Amino acid sequence: MRRLNEGLESEVIARTEELESAYRHLELLDRNKSDFITVVSHELRTPLTLIHGFSQMLRSDPVIAEDELRAKEVEGIVNGAHRLHTIVNSMLDVVKIDHRTLHLNCSTLSVDYLVEVLRSRLAPALDERRITLTTQGLSDLPEIEADPDALTKVFNELLTNAIKYTPDGGSIAVEGRDMTEGQKGGDRYIEIVVRDSGIGIDPQALEMIFTKFYRTGEVTLHSSGRTKFKGGGPGLGLTVARGIVEAHGGRIWAESAGHDETALPGSAFHVVLPLIVPPSAM
Ligand SMILES: Nc1ncnc2c1ncn2[C@@H]1O[C@H](COP(=O)(O)OP(=O)(O)O)[C@@H](O)[C@H]1O
Ligand SMILES: [Mg+2]
Q1: With CB atoms 3.0 to 4.6 Å apart as the test, which of 75, 162, 180, 218 could cross-link to 188 if both were Cys?
Q2: Whose C-alpha lies nearest to ligand 1, atom 9?
Q3: Sequence spans of domains, the chain
Q4: Total-model pTM
Q5: Cα(119)–Cα(52) distance, integer angstroms
Q6: Alpha-carbon span 175 to 191, nearest angstrom
């Protein structure tokens, strides 16, 4: 019995050591991946800023503005550089979230106003795809203490995703609710739901979509374009959105009956935010 016990004990010790070493290896790999993202995004940012700046200068050059073909070409460079800039910035945001160094500049803001600003910014895409955007209950929400730029990123991501994964002629609804209305004391929260009539999400993917670089479907089949139907993206949007919401002490999750491109069950993204960021959040 004793010999068996000793044998088992040394076996456990050996296995634990193996696991620990595998864990250290994984940790190193994860750190390398994170460093890789940082290096790539920093190295890309400098030349991109140059391309963006110079192409914008070219665009306002009267000689080019008169030449229809040249003007179109320069417009293409400006748009491409802008898109790359957004991707690089999302990569930098992901690194900050991973390293818990995302800083918030909070002020008092109204979610209703923020959504209206985004509505006008996204109006061309909504028109082109004939998607209607309705809101409900947003004007009754209390103002919250939050970082306006960061929250704009969150709702911009949820709305562009809703446009991307909804076929032409569909609809998007943004609903707001004061979760503690009528309740006295305690922490107060508001909930905002972005609902679409799109292709929906597989139940198994509902959590995975928030991890970095995760996208469903065949990557090579994606069309590009920020608001085209099923347009491709780097799969960072929801990762950044979750990082920002959690930095505010809030929660974000997705609900959907499933993925079906004919029945169109739709998806709903829930965002719960406290009226005031708790000191423990970040
Ligand atoms: N409203 C939605 N309806 C259906 N699927 C969605 C929706 N929003 C996100 N997804 C799925 O989650 C994945 C990750 O989204 P995201 O992080 O924004 O990356 P990206 O937009 O770059 O693909 C998307 O590729 C898509 O498969
Ligand atoms: Mg996205």
Answers
A1: 180
A2: 161
A3: 2-98, 107-281
A4: 0.84
A5: 26
A6: 8
Q: Alpha-carbon distance 157 to 171, whole Å?
A: 16
51-60, 162-171, 257-266, 272-281: least confident range: 272-281
Q: Which positions ≥6 away from 188 have C-beta within 8 Å? A: 142, 178, 179, 180, 274, 275, 276
- CATH T-level topology, domain 107-281: Heat Shock Protein 90 (3.30.565)
Please, which residues bridge with residue 272 across strands?
A: 191, 251
Pocket test for ligand 1, best of 133, 159, 199, 215 (most atoms within 8 A of CB): 215
What is the tens place of the pLDDT at every residue in 81-135? Answer: 988 988 899 988 998 898 888 999 999 999 999 999 999 999 999 999 999 999 9
CA geometry: angle at 109 spanning 238 and 90, to 5°?
25
- What pLDDT band is residue 32 in, cutting at 50, 70 and 90? confident
Q: What is the CATH architecture of 2-98?
A: Orthogonal Bundle (1.10)
